[in-house]
Backbone:
């Protein structure tokens, strides 16, 4: 089965750092996606982790621990435009089987 | 046009109407998907097509009928819907269905969605 947990909402201050956690229990796990979704818009790809460890991409970094079923998305130097929902999604199975979490709504305040 | 496009962007229909949602991808991808996104619920995968063949149908009611005439186009035909079917319907595409690969082939690119309201 598939089970993904992430916080529903978070608030952080402009210029700060925020970490959004995601835990999962996924059979046939291949890797983990993070997507960003602004209100009323489509999800856009941020990262995909297959191996354990931290992958950095500009202000955004994503971490994966396969043994712990745990990932986080780290956002540095927060900007107001980072206010959005962040979706954690696991990739499993022999073909493209992607299961999404409910998303974490991040609000960046001045 | 680039990326994944969807039409219409907004749709209001009665329970007895028949309508269709259209998705087109301009990325040269081989796989296409329909998702349903309801408020406070995770994205729900509805259908997956690879090279115009359906490879996944996640127990979706028959009032939703997908069609994939070619690898660039995907339709979702709707008939006798219920008010609880009101949601954002998102189309996505990926390069292929190769599992366990890296980002370049497995990443799904989403269209802007169709906001559907069933009265």
Residues:
């Amino acid at each position: 089965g598939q089970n993904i947990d992430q916080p529903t909402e978070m608030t952080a201050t402009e210029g700060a750092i925020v970490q959004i956690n995601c835990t999962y229990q996924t059979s046939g796990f291949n890797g983990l996606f993070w997507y960003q979704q602004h209100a009323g818009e489509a999800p856009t790809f941020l990262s995909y982790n297959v191996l354990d460890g931290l992958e950095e991409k500009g202000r955004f970094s994503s971490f994966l621990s396969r043994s712990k079923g745990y990932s986080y998305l780290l956002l540095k130097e927060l900007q107001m435009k980072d206010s959005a929902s962040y979706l954690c999604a696991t990739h499993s199975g022999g073909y493209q089987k992607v299961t999404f979490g409910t998303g974490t709504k991040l609000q960046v305040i001045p | 046009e680039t990326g994944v496009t969807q039409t219409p962007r907004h749709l209001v229909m009665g329970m007895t109407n028949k309508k269709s949602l259209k998705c087109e991808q301009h990325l040269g991808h081989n796989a296409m998907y329909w998702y349903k996104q309801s408020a406070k619920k995770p994205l729900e995968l509805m259908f997956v097509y690879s090279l115009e063949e359906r490879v996944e149908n996640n127990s979706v009611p028959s009032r939703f009928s997908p069609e994939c005439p070619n690898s660039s186009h995907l339709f979702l035909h709707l008939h006798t819907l219920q008010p609880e079917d009101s949601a954002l319907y998102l189309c996505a595409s990926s390069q292929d269905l190769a599992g366990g690969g890296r980002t370049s082939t497995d990443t799904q690119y989403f269209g802007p969605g169709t906001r559907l309201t069933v009265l």
